[in-house]
From TrEMBL, chain A:
Pfam families cross-referenced by the UniProt entry: Vma22_CCDC115
Low complexity bias (residue ranges): 1-18
InterPro entries (alphabetical): Vma22/CCDC115
Protein's UniProt name: Vacuolar ATPase assembly protein VMA22
Composition-biased stretches (Basic and acidic residues): 127-142, 162-172, 234-246
Originating organism: Lithohypha guttulata
Region (Disordered): 1-22, 116-176, 234-280
UniProtKB/TrEMBL annotation, chain B:
GO molecular function: proton-transporting ATPase activity, rotational mechanism
Domain of life, per lineage: Eukaryota
Any Pfam family the entry gives: vATP-synt_AC39
Species annotation: Lithohypha guttulata
Protein name as annotated: V-type proton ATPase subunit
SUPFAM superfamilies linked to this entry: V-type ATP synthase subunit C
Protein family: Belongs to the V-ATPase V0D/AC39 subunit family.
One GO cellular component term noted in the UniProt record for this chain: proton-transporting V-type ATPase, V0 domain
Subunit text: V-ATPase is a heteromultimeric enzyme made up of two complexes: the ATP-hydrolytic V1 complex and the proton translocation V0 complex. V-ATPase is a heteromultimeric enzyme composed of a peripheral catalytic V1 complex (components A to H) attached to an integral membrane V0 proton pore complex (components: a, c, c', c'', d, e, f and VOA1).
Length: 280, 365
């Protein structure tokens, strides 16, 4: 990994004394850069693992939903779908984005807005129920984006609703009851899958994502200090070609992470990331 | 003797239904369906059986759209039969539609409770359960109002007798209304097939009794299993069990006292078939810890719900070995409903890329 980092040009130094000092500084900077890159790789690993888990969870959630449709207790040919939604539904989860921990970037947390009215079921969400039909079978890449947008809306929705309907707020009722008290257990399972997705997996993923951006920013700063950015920009076109040649999972992971970086608005100075050349 | 005059009124319809039965999907056709790569392929495979019914579907339709269109075809065929039916057969077919009416009533009053747009919901009602005063249902706010303003005009009115209360409609009460109606409907249907002057002492009564008893038992078992952990009390639950069936009366009494799956299993152990079902899924239940229809269990294992469907299909298939009976129509409707469920399941598995579970459909031909 370290070998891929071009050493800083020596010609810049003027006097032998300051040259030595500069070398020393460069060494420390390089070491810090290495440490950061290592941290980044760890995060990337976590990110890919979580992404895999997320897609598994989504598939089992949708699958149990299909199972519930088959065992529908609503009568022959009736599906658990939009026609049973409560029009007064409100978000039951709050998104909290914590920026107080500069060491970890933004920390995303999703919590219940109110205690569930009934402790029988292990979950009481509603946002994910909407997802079932709305986002339907989206590609998993889009899902995190969508949920991001959706969860961001949640606090606003909540503010509007606090004043109206103080008592017996239909929004606080477990949405599974929309489909009748006697919902089959497959539907309950599906609900708990979706709840876990929204409450744990997606916020975790977003937190790691934000942490990755933070580390990435630091790496860029260090590279700038070391005067390395220029080299990366030059080799960009070459890299593209190489990437096309890559096959299989490695290329996918690289491509995906690269795309993620490309879309970052927070780093306009470097529209393209080259971090992923690490392995070369 | 009983077959002597059957063909005067019922012969043509029986012939038609037997024809319908012959185009039900067979095991090999299901085999072909499971090989499909996408929903368009499924559409093409269904061509011979469903013909034009699926033509209006857009390319790569959703599974729910596919289910809707296949249901439409069932409704068309049923309406054709209904148009030809006279006498006791016409009445028998009306009875078939009552169950859909109950579902529609439940859908609409749930929609009212949820402040939904009525028009939208009316479109989503099952066409077989349509009745004229249905749109008025949306104004009801409690059970009494519901009865007095709307249901008194419908065939469902008698099923409400003795169950009127001033309770406001909430989710619990809607569930109770739905299941009470269904209980009374099953009992009435059972009484009808056994006591109607034209049908008494014919094979229809005998066959339909067996099917309806099974249906009653299945409902009672499902209500019990799904009620664990809900606000439905044991007392309320007991009133939802039909007063006939193989489990009636001891089994039902035991069901009403059951607190968990073991209790249900014990209650049904008096009937060989049900005991076998519970034994077969017994392992699943102890490992997953949830009631029936454990969706996440192993690929090969069938859920309790699947076993019940399987049994229902076997009963329906057997009906076609009998002659001179209205029950073939009931059996055909059930077989078609299962066929739609199978198609939806296969389509869903293909759409979700979960091909390892695709074999969980139920085919008896």
């Amino acid at each position: 990994m370290a070998t891929s980092l071009p050493s800083p040009p020596l010609s810049r130094s003027s006097t032998p004394g300051s040259e030595q000092q500069k070398d020393l500084v460069t060494d420390t900077l390089s070491q810090r850069l290495d440490a950061l890159l290592e941290q980044y790789l760890h995060l990337l690993h976590q990110y890919t693992t979580l992404r895999e888990e997320l897609s598994n969870s989504f598939s089992s959630a949708f699958f149990t939903l299909a199972h519930a449709q088959r065992a529908s207790t609503l009568g022959a040919g009736r599906r658990y779908g939009q026609e049973y939604y409560d029009d007064r539904m409100k978000a039951q989860r709050l998104v909290k984005v914590d920026n107080d921990a500069p060491r970890h970037g933004l920390v995303w947390k999703v919590s219940r807005k109110v205690a569930p009215t009934r402790d029988g079921a292990d979950a009481g969400p509603n946002t994910e129920k909407d997802n079932v039909d709305l986002q339907s079978r989206e590609k998993e890449d889009d899902v995190s984006q969508e949920v991001k947008g959706q969860t961001k809306d949640a606090p606003e929705v909540e503010e509007d609703s606090t004043n109206e309907r103080e008592k017996q707020d239909p929004a606080t009722r477990d949405p599974i009851n929309w489909f009748g008290i006697l919902a089959p257990s497959a539907l309950r399972q599906s609900q708990s899958h979706f709840t876990r997705l929204v409450e744990n997996q997606i916020p975790d993923l977003l937190s790691i994502d934000s942490n990755m951006r933070r580390v990435e920013g630091q790496i860029w700063l260090l590279r700038e200090e070391l005067g390395l950015t220029h080299d990366y920009e030059q080799s960009e076109t070459k890299e593209e070609v190489e990437h096309d040649g890559l096959e299989g999972e490695e290329a996918q992971v690289k491509q995906r992470a690269k795309q993620a970086f490309r879309n970052l608005p927070s780093r306009p100075a470097h529209p393209k990331s080259h971090l992923l050349k690490l392995g070369e | 003797m009983e077959g002597l005059y059957f063909n005067v009124n019922g012969g043509y319809l029986e012939g038609i239904v037997r024809g319908y039965r012959n185009v039900l999907l067979t095991g090999s056709q299901y085999g072909n369906l499971t090989q499909c790569e996408n929903i368009d392929d499924i559409k093409m495979q269904l061509g011979p059986s469903y013909g034009d019914a699926l033509a209006s579907l857009p390319p790569n339709p959703s599974t729910s759209a596919l289910a809707d269109k296949t249901t439409e075809k069932l409704v068309q065929d049923f309406r054709y039969l209904q148009g030809q039916a006279t006498g006791s057969l016409a009445k028998f077919m009306e009875y078939l539609t009552y169950s859909y009416m109950i579902d529609n009533v439940a859908l609409l009053i749930t929609g009212t409770l949820h402040e939904r747009d009525t028009k939208e919901l009316l479109e989503r009602c099952h066409p077989l359960g349509w009745f004229e005063t249905m749109p008025v249902l949306c104004v009801a706010t409690n059970i009494e109002e519901l009865y007095n303003s709307v249901l008194i005009e419908t065939p469902l009115a008698p099923y409400f007798k003795g169950h009127l209360s001033h309770h406001d409609l909430d989710e619990l009460n809607i569930e109770i209304v739905r299941n009470t109606l269904y209980k009374n409907y099953l009992e009435d249907f059972h009484h009808f097939v056994n006591n109607d002057s034209e049908m008494a002492m014919t094979p229809t009564g005998e066959i339909m009794s067996e099917i309806l008893e099974f249906e009653a038992d299945r409902r009672a078992i499902n209500i019990t299993l799904n009620s664990f952990g809900t606000e439905l009390s044991k007392d309320q639950r007991r009133k939802l069990y039909p007063d006939f069936g193989k489990l009636y009366p001891e089994g039902m009494l035991m069901l009403s006292r059951a607190d968990d799956i073991e209790g249900v299993s014990l209650a049904v152990s008096g009937v060989g078939d049900y005991k076998r079902f519970f034994d077969e899924v017994g392992l699943n239940q102890s490992s997953s810890g949830v009631g029936n229809m454990a969706g996440g269990s192993g690929a090969e294992s069938k859920s309790l719900e699947d076993l019940f469907y399987q049994k229902e299909m076997e009963l329906s298939k057997l009906v076609f070995t009998q002659q001179f009976t209205h029950a073939v129509i009931y059996a055909w409707v059930k077989l078609r409903e299962q066929e739609i469920r199978n198609i939806t399941w296969i389509a869903e598995c293909i759409a979700q890329g979960q091909k390892d579970r695709i074999g969980n459909y139920i085919s008896v031909f």
